[in-house]
Input
Amino acid sequence: MSNRLQFQPPGRPAAVVFVLVLVLLAAAPAAGLDLVKVYSEENADGAFEFYIDSDHTIPVWLNLEFENLVNLRADVELPYRALIEPGVEGKHLFTLEPTERSGRRGYSISYSYARGDPREVEHDDDHVYLLPFEHGRKYRVTQGYHGEFTHYGENKYALDFDMEIGTPVRAARGGRVVEVKQDSTVGGPSPRYEGRANYILVQHDDGSYGNYVHLDHNGAVVEPGDRVEAGQHIGYSGNTGRSSGPHLHFDVRVPQKDGTMQSIPTRFRDHTGETITIEENRFYYAAHPGREEFEVVFGDDLTDDDFTDHAAEVSRTNSIEIRTEQVDHTYVLFIANGYDRDMDVEVSINKQGFEATRALPLDLRVPAQTESYITILRADPEARRMQFTPRIRYRPSE
Output
């Protein structure tokens, strides 16, 4: 937000005053809530008194700088940094006093704020986070640390999980909810959607914050002040703000003395209970302590040996049909012979962005009214386009 004012104060025809205010709320997790406002008022002596309003439920660390001061001096050390208590209105910060009674004078200012007190924060690097979704569910990380689309700067240690709109979001760590934005209904990949994301911000006991972003419209089931436990349902994923598709953005961040909020690397608990670092383009199961066991199946773990003995009875259809099973980005292909006699079949596959586990084309003898295994197709995670089309030629076996 920026404002430009140029005016001549009453009673001082020789003085020309200019004011340029540039406000940067660089620390906002989704830049969606404007809870802190710095402003000034001119007093009878031509000095500028600076004040702050904060509607936040927790203290904020204010970082304020003057990029230009002309015939004015502050009665405090600059840049101005201070911890602002929650819920203040009209709190006096400092004064800019004229250095000369005539001539041009003015200022340009920028400020930012971070949640909490950066002097008191020390993230517990030994803490192991839960994956921020339901126990027993599996999702793919579409953008990881240093992701090219949006994971740079304060977001460089963020993770994006591929989720349909309305997927339940769970707290990765316990803490107190300090901010909720859920009024946005729009989203898209353009930078013009910056600041339009719905989010939940949870303060952890060590002063760090769990940041859950791109939530659905009215997609929060918690509100500021609520205490949440790790694994608790807090909201629903969506596609609001700057987003290339439905997903959940999660990161842990800590306030900095320059007024920003920087994301940090985090470790997670996987389905085996091991501590891991999340990698881009991989699928992960969430496993919450004390919950029931569940079946774990990853497409990358499937091999030809799992299916070579596959022989399922099928109905008579007088046709040859291909069937696929998808596990993650892995496809298992089967062929069904709906005739009442054995068939010799040649299978070829036109594919892009996939690799087959068996050499193609493949010659098979498929028994009458039986479904047999063909091959596994694995997607290349770096491929920009992925598609495959099976082609078959067949004749009755001799």
